[in-house]
Amino acid sequence: MKTTPLSIVFTVCLLLAIGCSWRPPSDDETKNAFTTKIEKESEGRIKLIEFRKTAGQIKDTAGVKVYHLEYEFTIEFTADCKWLHQETLGLSFRTNLPPAADAQAQLSDPSAPVNQGEMVLKRDRRKCSGGLDLEQTEKGWSIGTTSPAPASIVQLERRQQDPYEKALEAANEVVREKTQALEAARKATKAAEQKLRDLQKMPVVKEIPIFGSAAEAETSIFKEATQQARAILDHDWVEHSDSWFSTYKRNDSSHTILIQAKDLKATLALGRVITAADRLNGLEWIGWLKIDGSLSRSTDSYDDKRQKTWGKWEDGLEYTAKANIYAYFLRKMEGKWTVERIEVQNGYSGGYITSKPLVSDIPPL
To answer: How many angstroms separate the CA atoms of 341 and 329, rounded?
Structure first.
């Protein structure tokens, strides 16, 4: 094949074009390389605030062209975390969410022996400077995997929150706490509703009041159950005048309700006949205690030191019966009695606190 002057010129131009295709990164490309590395490694807990290239030059490392960059940048932390920027890791933006105990320990004593990493708080800022190599890939410029750690890391003054931002952050924290509490209550409700369904399926083998001659004539194990039931009654109720009184409140409330009941009746129900297999498995007795009355009324101002006012009379323990506040599951297993309250009311099962009121705190009847 004959070589012409024109083909020689074309070949030279082509080689020059290929050689000139490598170029230093622009300022935007350099900043994007840092932004990409920060977002990926920190999992969103660090953001780039300011970036400035102070110097740069093309280098040839083992036949590969790289761009050596001198830089200054400022980062801000978007969450309380630990920054793993140790020099042995090179330029690193990896973070971990620390246990609360670690956070408190390092804030009070920076030399405390806790998990590795520097403890930083949300809105803390750091100014870093140093040098590294940028490599050109098919996807653009990226920071080399062997880039050294920053030569200087300076802590800047923590940015102050304006009142609106502080109030918004506090409101968001309340929402998060309420959401977690609601989820916990939902799980507890499902468990309590299942427990109630199981009890409702349990056939009543035997039912007797805990007071009177019928209770005294029972077997020793039923007498033990009766003693457990009387202890529950003594803890929650006090007899005064011609009625019985108790107080209750939800675990998520400071509002206490006083209830008055007439003709209080406490009944023990044996859930099933204990078989030989049950006894070998350690089960000696299983059933529940139900407390009821012929009439009841309540006052919702028990905590109020002013004059308390009674509400209207209702048949039975209307509200508390629906809520199963005074219903208890009893079991004797391997010689030990356990008592659990059955609490399900309008989807709430966060628990109730019941107690015996002082007679002196009972309003005029």
So the answer is: 6
Buried-state track 86-117, b at ≥16 Cβ within 10 A, e below 16: eeeebbbbbbeebeeebbebbeeeeeeebeeb
Phi-psi region of 123 (alpha: psi -120 to 50; beta: other; left: phi over 0): left
Q: How far, rounded to the nearest angstrom, does the alpha carbon of residue 354 sit from its chain's CA centroid?
A: 27
- Owner of token pair 């920053």: 150
DSSP letter string, 44-87: TSEEEEEEEEEEEEEEEETTEEEEEEEEEEEEEESSSEEE---G
Q: HSE-up of 247 (CA within 13 Å, CB side)?
A: 20
The domain spans of the chain are: 24-162, 202-361
3-state SS class at 276: helix
CA angle 114, 115, 119 (to 5 degrees): 80
pLDDT greater than 90 at residue 298? no
Judge whether 236 and 294 are in contact, CB under 8 Å.
Answer: no
Q: How far apart are CA 2 and CA 151, in angstroms?
A: 59
Using alpha carbons only, how large is the chain's radius of gyration in Å?
37
- pLDDT tens for each residue of 233-288: 888 889 998 999 998 887 777 778 888 999 888 888 877 778 888 888 998 888 88
Long-range pairs, 166-174, Cβ under 8 A, ≥24: none
Answer yes or no: are the C-beta atoms of 109 and 42 closer than 8 Å: no
For the chain, what is the mean pLDDT?
A: 75
Distance CA 78, CA 45 (A): 5
Q: Which two tokens stand for residue 305?
A: 């030191």
Q: Running DSSP on this structure, what letter comes out for residue 300?
A: S
Number of Cβ within a 10 Å radius of residue 317 = 24
